[in-house]
Amino acid sequence: MFISMFNAVESGVIFAIMALGVYLSFRILDFPDLTVDGSFVTGAAVSALMIVNGMPTGVAILGALLAGFLAGSMTGLLNTKGKVNPLLSGILMMTALYSINLRIMGQSNIPLLNQETFFTQLRTIFDSLGINQFFDQGLAALGVENLPATYSALIIMLVVTFLIKFVTDYFLKTEIGLALRAIGDNEQMIRSFSANTDHLKVLGLGVSNGLVALAGGLYAQFTGFSDLNMGIGMIVIGLASVIIGESVVGTKTIGRTTLAVIVGAVIYRIVITLAIRSDFLDNGDTKLITALLVVLALVVPKVVETTKESNRKRKKRQILNQQVRRGA
Amino acid sequence: MLKIEDLSITFNEGTPDEKKALQHIQLELKPGDFVTVIGSNGAGKSTLMNMISGALFPDVGIVEINGQNVTTLKEHKRAKKIGRVFQDPMAGTSPKMTIEENLAIAYARNKTRMLKPGANKKRRVLFKEELNRLHLGLENRLSAKVGLLSGGERQALSLLMATFTQPDILLLDEHTAALDPSRAELITSLTGEIVKETNLTTLMVTHNMQQALDLGNRLIMMDKGQIILDIDGAKKQALTIEKLLQEFKRIRGTDMDNDRAILG
């Protein structure tokens, strides 16, 4: 139990980077960008290919980021210069990326099991510093039996993900970031304040898919393979993370919302893991559970809000009625 | 400051719906001119505005701002020189962003947007000073989301955002038409104050004849895509609504057919 929860949080933190990318397109630009299903794999493919070819793991991760940025920019160009509808531009790009990803990998799957990845390197460092042993002893003292293989992935990914979060927060408050946010909110207005909305959309979608591909590249190194089909349904997972997080943590400020997205991504992983572990659900049911989760996250806050409001009104009515009676 | 030469556009040309929205418009605004534009529905007032701002491009004709020919310049590039307030109070601001962030967007209008924070200490002081001019207490609510403000407050903020970076031209497109009378009054007087203080060259479209008479140093009347009346200086001071209607009848030979314009 502990170990599967641990793994859920581990991958949740990696997926949080993807969810931050989805947040940028879906919420900030108000652009439902389906490129994500393709660009996640592009990131994984590029990073796997570079590692197999002996490049440093850090370079492989940056390569993934860049490839994703290019893919997102293409979607942006389709939409702004080609005047193609946002959903359709994403679908077209996602379809094209499927073939491009196969071309990049040359085969439908690249295993990295015997390769040095970012995460095997981290593990070695953590082992040599004795950090893993330290946590092992701590957890063993608490009575946990099955111990994780390493804590390095979780700890470093937390650092990386939060670093990305803080950079995103800063970015969204810069002059360019403010203009980006205005696009999703009031496009006519930001154009009347001399912003080139076409360029900004291309940039925004580029950054968004850059983050998605970065997550793909990290995930490939984390799981030890890149697979042509690993991106299927990724956009829905991203949306689920954003929506769940927002309803749990709230959206009062930008910093709070990006935190919400990260929390949402981790919650999503935990719920899916719990669901699959139950006796009557299996792997094939994850899509259904995902859909249900999103529905819950959308509906429950509304119901809570209306119940609160009607309670408030009922109380108010009672008080007023009493006053009227007393007056009479 | 603004020069329009022989500007014409026809919509749906060659179809039964053909409409000559603007016909050979000639107009020149001197620096500091405050021109009010009146006319019935379909007279071409909004088309003229959109042509100046770059939302529409003319079939023929030239638009010059501050000596530069901007006829083919795209809307967002032209926007560096033009401040605009729209009729819809929701149109000029971004509701999900704070007052401060909206002002920061407006502040960056005539600059190249960079990766530095939109609002810093120095700018915040400036924003507060500017908000102070609205007398609405908004200077104490810098971090309030603009979506929470009333229509009047939002329109006042839009007006401030359009003007405080000193654009070459200020375009006001019936910016009080969607507000209730008391709020409209407030925005009208704020407009008068701000334009006077900043000495902006202003073009204001309005349906409200009284407002067109009260504000500005020059008045033009449009009908069927043409400028049919252009009055300035002392003559404008002496104008009344009755005189305007008589003038319209004298020129066009019919009564002005728009109750909203008369009563508004």
UniProtKB/TrEMBL annotation, chain A:
One of its GO terms (molecular function) is transmembrane transporter activity. InterPro entries: ABC_transp_permease. It comes from the Bacteria. It is a multi-pass membrane protein. It is found in: Cell membrane. The chain crosses the membrane at residues 12-29, 49-72, 84-104, 151-172, 202-222, 228-245, 257-276, 288-307. GO terms for cellular component: plasma membrane. This is ABC transporter permease. Keywords: Cell membrane, Membrane, Transmembrane, Transmembrane helix.
From TrEMBL, chain B:
PANTHER family: NITRATE ABC TRANSPORTER ATP-BINDING PROTEIN (PTHR42788:SF7), TAURINE IMPORT ATP-BINDING PROTEIN-RELATED (PTHR42788). Gene3D superfamilies: P-loop containing nucleotide triphosphate hydrolases (3.40.50.300). Coiled coil: none annotated. One of its GO terms (molecular function) is ATP binding. Residues 2-249 form the ABC transporter domain. Keywords: ATP-binding, Cell membrane, Membrane, Nucleotide-binding, Transport. InterPro entries: AAA+_ATPase, ABC_transporter-like_ATP-bd, ABC_transporter-like_CS, ABC_transporter_ATP-bind, P-loop_NTPase. This is ABC transporter ATP-binding protein. It comes from Halolactibacillus halophilus. It is found in: Cell membrane. GO terms for cellular component: plasma membrane.
